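INFO batch 0412 | record 1 of 1 | parsing
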Amino acid sequence: MMRGDRASGAAGISLVDAAPGEVTVTMTVTKEHVNGFDICHGGVLFTLADTAFALACNSHGPMTVAAGADITFCKAAAPGDVLTARAVERTRFGRSGIYDVTVTRGTSDGGAEIVAEFRGRSRTIGETQPGAAANPIDPGGSRSG
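INFO prediction complete | emitting C-alpha cells
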C-alpha cells in the first residue's frame, strides 16, 4: 500500500516499522511543509498521522478506508524537525475499527515530545486490496519487526 501512496511519498513520509495493527512512519519537516507562520502546516501533520493510520488499519489485509478522524495539535513543528507517527489499533468490531496515532519529535535530551494526537475511525469496504501481496503494508518487503 505504501508503495502506491503518491501523496505520502510526495510529503517525504517513510515507513519505519509495521506489525498487524501497529505502524510507525517518519517525516522531516521541510520549508515546503510550512505555513505563513513558518511552522509546519496542520494539514501536513494530519497527512503524516493519516498515513500511519491508513497503514495500520490496512495491515490485516482487507481494503479499509477512513470513516472519520480528528486531530489535536499540541505543539508547533518547525523546518528540520524529524517527526514520528505511531499508530496503534485500539479495537476492531465488525467492519469498523478505532486507531490512535501519536505524532512526536525528538528532544535534545534524547526524549520525545508530543506534537499531535490523532484518532481515526476505519471501515472495511472490500475483501482484498487492489494488487494485494503477501504483505499488504509494503509489498516490497521492507517491513521490519
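INFO post-check: The helical segments are 6-11, 42-57.
INFO record closed
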